[in-house]
Design a protein that fits this description.
The longest helix has 29 residues, at 110-138. The protein is globular. Strand 1, helix 1 and strand 2 form a beta-alpha-beta unit. It has helices at residues 21-32, 45-58, 76-87, 110-138, 158-178, 203-214, 224-236; strands at residues 12-15, 36-41, 63-67, 92-95, 141-145, 183-189, 245-248. The relative contact order is 0.14. The chain is built from seven helices and seven strands; from the N terminus they run βαβαβαβαβαβααβ. Helix 1 (21-32) packs across helix 7 (224-236) and helix 4 (110-138) packs parallel to helix 5 (158-178). It has a seven-stranded parallel β-sheet, with helices on both faces. By secondary structure, the protein is α/β, with parallel strands linked by helices.
Length: 256
């Protein structure tokens, strides 16, 4: 019988965009290791409430949810204050919330620039800044969910890739700025979950998906649980690692 991981017992984690998809997988994995959670959502109230009810059924009063439009930067300190008020501390901040869509040259708008740079770079910067005091007190961790396309551009996604490249450098810069009290690391997913609306099953979509999978060394898709287990590694089992970005991509970034 496998021994249960309790490495995060007594720790508190704030996850942005944690109600669904990869964020929810991270939430379940860290909760399973003993963490208390604050799950942020923007529009997915029903999913956030269902996730909280499920996990609170496993361990009572261990998960709280909070709604916010993270692009309203003046509201970010309230997320940290809510977390500390609810559970007494903040040990891990997971910057997971993101927007992703194509911005073809000739069609890029100021609104798309502000949205993609805002959610993928500006928000993690200002939320990390808001969390610094609480994380120093707990010798905590900032964990940024990046993308392998931060270093290898994806055609037609210039603005998104630029934003993720900034998040890659932000991760390394914050590690230098915030050490030794706070560790800062990142996870760069490869093909683990198709973007919403991109898996409709048309012949073109299937060809694109097959091509992406074929270009991984492991010749298969990953899963949100692969990202979640990596998050647990950084949060519970890597106290001497900071300033690092780990690609979880089936070898895609090697076999480009």
């Amino acid at each position: 019988m496998q021994e249960r991981d309790t490495s995060l017992t007594g720790k508190t984690v704030l996850i942005t965009g944690g109600a669904r998809r990869v964020g929810a997988a991270i939430a379940r994995e860290l909760h399973g290791a003993g963490a208390n959670l604050v799950v942020h959502y923007r529009k997915s109230e029903q999913a956030a409430a269902a996730l909280a009810a499920d996990l609170n059924g496993v361990r009572a009063n261990s998960v709280a949810i909070i709604q916010a439009n993270l692009l309203e930067l003046e509201k970010l300190p309230a997320l940290i204050e809510f977390t500390v008020r609810t559970f007494g501390a903040l040990d891990v901040l997971v910057n997971n919330a993101s927007t992703f869509y194509a911005t073809r040259i000739g069609e890029i708008t100021p609104a798309a620039w502000d949205d993609l740079l805002g959610s993928n770079l500006k928000v993690p910067t200002f939320l990390a800044q808001a969390a610094t005091t609480a994380l120093r007190e707990s010798s905590g961790l900032i964990l940024n969910i990046i993308d392998i396309h931060a270093l290898r551009p994806l055609r037609n996604y210039t603005v998104y890739c630029t934003a993720k490249a900034g998040l890659h450098m932000l991760t390394r810069s914050l590690a230098k700025e915030l050490g030794p009290e706070i560790r800062v690391n990142g996870i760069s997913p490869g093909p683990v979950l198709w973007p919403e609306g991109a898996g409709g099953g048309t012949p073109d979509e299937k060809r694109t998906r097959d091509k992406i999978v074929e270009r991984t060394i492991l010749k298969r898709m990953g899963a949100p649980s692969d990202i979640a287990r990596t998050a647990l590694f950084f949060a519970g089992h890597a106290p001497f690692i900071t300033g690092q970005i780990l690609a979880v991509d089936g070898g895609r970034s090697v076999a480009w």
